[in-house]
UniProtKB/TrEMBL annotation:
<keyword id="KW-0520">NAD</keyword>
<keyword id="KW-0560">Oxidoreductase</keyword>
<dbReference type="InterPro" id="IPR001732">
    <property type="entry name" value="UDP-Glc/GDP-Man_DH_N"/>
</dbReference>
<dbReference type="GO" id="GO:0051287">
    <property type="term" value="F:NAD binding"/>
</dbReference>
<comment type="similarity">
    <text>Belongs to the UDP-glucose/GDP-mannose dehydrogenase family.</text>
</comment>
<dbReference type="InterPro" id="IPR028359">
    <property type="entry name" value="UDP_ManNAc/GlcNAc_DH"/>
</dbReference>
<dbReference type="Pfam" id="PF03721">
    <property type="entry name" value="UDPG_MGDP_dh_N"/>
</dbReference>
<dbReference type="InterPro" id="IPR017476">
    <property type="entry name" value="UDP-Glc/GDP-Man"/>
</dbReference>
<dbReference type="Pfam" id="PF03720">
    <property type="entry name" value="UDPG_MGDP_dh_C"/>
</dbReference>
<feature type="domain" description="UDP-glucose/GDP-mannose dehydrogenase C-terminal">
    <location>
        <begin position="302"/>
        <end position="392"/>
    </location>
</feature>
<dbReference type="GO" id="GO:0016628">
    <property type="term" value="F:oxidoreductase activity, acting on the CH-CH group of donors, NAD or NADP as acceptor"/>
</dbReference>
<dbReference type="GO" id="GO:0000271">
    <property type="term" value="P:polysaccharide biosynthetic process"/>
</dbReference>
<dbReference type="Pfam" id="PF00984">
    <property type="entry name" value="UDPG_MGDP_dh"/>
</dbReference>
<feature type="region of interest" description="Disordered">
    <location>
        <begin position="142"/>
        <end position="162"/>
    </location>
</feature>
<protein>
    <submittedName>
        <fullName>Nucleotide sugar dehydrogenase</fullName>
    </submittedName>
</protein>
<dbReference type="InterPro" id="IPR014026">
    <property type="entry name" value="UDP-Glc/GDP-Man_DH_dimer"/>
</dbReference>
<dbReference type="GO" id="GO:0016616">
    <property type="term" value="F:oxidoreductase activity, acting on the CH-OH group of donors, NAD or NADP as acceptor"/>
</dbReference>
Length: 401
């Protein structure tokens, strides 16, 4: 089986490596020469397992779309972000699907995995491809060193026809423990949006309960840990500074955009609360600085950890960006440190990470993402723990938002 992966980003590259591990011949296609060069050198953000696979296996890569015609199966794995107005950015998806439509040949199997609006598989592929079997099977990649390997996650499969479903199921079972078939591509598309909307709503609820706990003088972590002992009817979600990455900050907006004339109230409120969370962290930082008699103007504030989750060199949609931007607008000398992220573009500013956080007398440290050595933090150092996961030393100046 010759599988061609369209898009070699944080989803496409692990997908390609999983199919290689399963014994398939795999070709990776990407329009970015820079990305292909980084893959060839092994300079990519992957789990330890996938780094080992990249070293061991030979992954064919190409920037020539004509290679699509030679494959038995084509798997589309391109990013589907939203813009600054929370409107879906479909440019990469439309370009990728257009390229596949232009080069696909009868008898091929095409699998779309990118999260998107309900109806997009039909709009962008099925309606334009004759003699090609098309399915939608949403990706379930869990980035980071502690993430679940791709082969450990069941796959949902929404086929355009029974024959397409049979072919896709046979292929996907090579890289998944099981395949759950639904009746249509639209059902599978909505399944993916439900998965991440569920996370968004519960993260917003956890943040709200953290605020309630502080208002009534109770430790929010203690309350969450107590509730998590219930063996049924409760799933633990932790508060934080907001959400980042490709999925939770973006995916629900594909549903809200599709239903904009009758927007669901719970999801709309949750996404609004999530978008406002970084500013709430900034507000708490201002309170802590004021309580210490320190003016925000020229205050030295360090954001510790800026990736969207621990262990990944990925700062897409990270809440750290609006936090840093807001602090700098207010006049603070806000900097960041992160062992995996060397630089950030915040607004129109290009920021390099602080070379050694131990050498500066910070007025406040905001712990945004756990990762790396935080042993330089001392009990007397004012710390705002936006992760809610630091063990707070006794008689310290460490607080949560």
């Amino acid at each position: 089986m010759h599988v061609l992966i369209v898009g070699l980003g944080y989803v496409g590259l692990p997908t390609a490596l999983a199919f290689l591990e399963a014994g398939c011949r795999v070709t990776g296609y990407d329009v970015s020469a820079t990305r292909l060069a980084a893959i060839a050198k092994g300079q990519v953000d992957l789990s330890p397992l996938d780094h080992a696979r990249l070293r061991f296996h030979r992954l064919e890569t190409t920037a020539d779309p004509a290679a699509i015609a030679a494959a038995d199966a084509v798997v589309i794995c391109v990013p589907t972000p939203v813009d600054e107005h929370h409107v879906p950015d479909l440019s990469a998806l439309r370009a990728a699907c257009g390229t596949v439509v232009a080069h696909a040949v009868p008898g091929q199997l095409v699998i779309l995995t990118s999260t998107t609006y309900v109806g997009s598989t039909r709009d962008l592929l099925i309606d334009h491809l004759g003699g090609v079997d098309v399915v939608f099977s949403p990706e379930r990649v869990d980035p980071g060193p502690g993430g679940r390997p791709l082969e450990h996650s069941p796959r949902v499969l929404g086929p355009a026809s029974a024959k397409a479903g049979d072919r896709a199921e046979e292929l996907l079972k090579r890289v998944a423990p099981s395949v759950h078939r639904v009746s249509s591509p639209e059902a599978a598309e909505l399944c993916k949006l439900l998965e991440n909307s569920f996370r968004a709503v519960n993260i917003a609820l956890a943040n709200e309960f953290a605020d309630i706990a502080r208002e009534v003088g109770v430790d929010p972590v203690e309350v969450i840990e107590a509730a998590a002992t219930k063996p049924f009817g409760f799933m633990r979600f932790d508060p934080g500074p907001g959400v980042g990455g490709q999925c939770v900050p973006s995916d629900p907006y594909y549903l809200l955009w599709r239903l904009r004339r009758a927007a669901p109230t719970v999801l709309t409120a949750a996404m609004g609360a999530i978008a406002a969370r970084p500013q709430a962290v900034v507000g708490r930082a201002l309170e802590m600085l004021a309580a210490a008699g320190r003016d925000i103007r020229d205050a030295k504030v360090l954001i510790a950890g800026v990736s969207y989750k621990p262990g990944v060199a990925d700062a897409r949609e990270t809440p750290a960006m609006p936090i840093i931007a807001a602090l700098r607008r207010l006049g603070a000398r806000a900097e960041f440190t992160d062992p995996l992220v060397e630089e950030l573009v915040v607004g129109e500013e290009f920021l390099k990470r602080a070379p050694d956080p131990r050498t500066e007398p910070w007025d406040l440290v905001i712990v945004h993402t756990l990762g790396g050595d935080l042993g330089w933090l001392r009990p007397e150092q004012p710390v705002l723990d936006a992760t809610y996961r630091l063990e707070r030393p006794g008689d310290s100046r460490w607080e949560v938002p």
